[in-house]
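To: structure subgroup
Subject: Chain for Friday's discussion

All,

I'm putting the inputs and outputs inline so they're searchable in the archive.
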Amino acid sequence: MERMNETLDLKLNELSANTAEVTGTAGMVNTAEMAEMAESPTAAEQSGTEQSGTEQSGTGLDALVRGTDVPQGTVVMAATPIGNTADASARLIALLERADIVAAEDTRRLYALANRLGVHVNGRVVAYHDHNERDKSDGLLDQVETGATVLVVSDAGMPTINDPGLAIVRRAIERGLPVTCAPGPSAVLDALCLSGLPTDRFCYEGFLPRKHSERVQYLRTLRSERRTIVFYETLHRIDDSMADLLDVFGPNRKMALCRELTKDFEQIRRGTIAQIRQSVINEPPRGEMVLVVAGASEEEADAAAPASLSVEDLAVLSIDRAQEDNLRIKDAISQVVAEHPLADGSLANRKQVYNAVLAMKQ
């Protein structure tokens, strides 16, 4: 019995020692785990981090669209992509989704754009094009007066720029109704930017006239234009138009022919008018084009400008004006000088004209 008790005590002591050893090891493991846990985020902290990441992902395009204000009781003229759907703005997407009425140049193209953007057009869609814009404008503005948002879009680019839209803008102004823009892609500005020609002063001339005689006459009026000139032209008329540009402006003016802007096959041809003309012959361009032509040099402008009247000529005209209209000679001189600017746009010196008048009367 005693031996059994001794054996039992021995077993218990061994078990106690083993337990202490295990406990010590477990303590070491627990300490290491606690250190690791101190360095790792808690579940709550990790949840907060995940939530923060979700909030950050919400600052993308979807968030911009959701946060876009769509003004009520307003006409909004919105630019659409000119070739690359990815150029659509968050504001355009929001307007397409939430405008009460969408007035589109071509409703089929509108829906095609909406499909590419993954947008559902919830408002009423109406056709609004060159042939009906004057008749449709007041009806659309009647809806604006009741608080509706009327969105006006063309097939590509900004409405009113060689596209419908001017009629509703004018009528909105006349009726005192708000009208605003959602700006975006512009073939004119893209071509101007890529041309490498001066951009500080430029004029946009739209499409060149269709007929040869009218086109040549029109181009002649621009021969002395000092600003960079921007035209639109089509595939079918580019050859004739380049020939007329060469004839009127000469071979050495710099220009750029820009085609398929923002698309995969975008191309910019830069050179002199003669070089671009030859490239059109050798490799006829496809698609719609923007032509950017350098303004006239000072010598070209002077040569193309109408001859200025001399001081003596202005004096003669002033004397005739004074007699015919019963004016004081100084008043007649002021009128004549204002009506006949010099080649550079400045006005002749009225004192010199007055002295010439006095000399003629002696």
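Points worth raising on Friday:
The radius of gyration is 38 Å.
The mean pLDDT is 85.

D.
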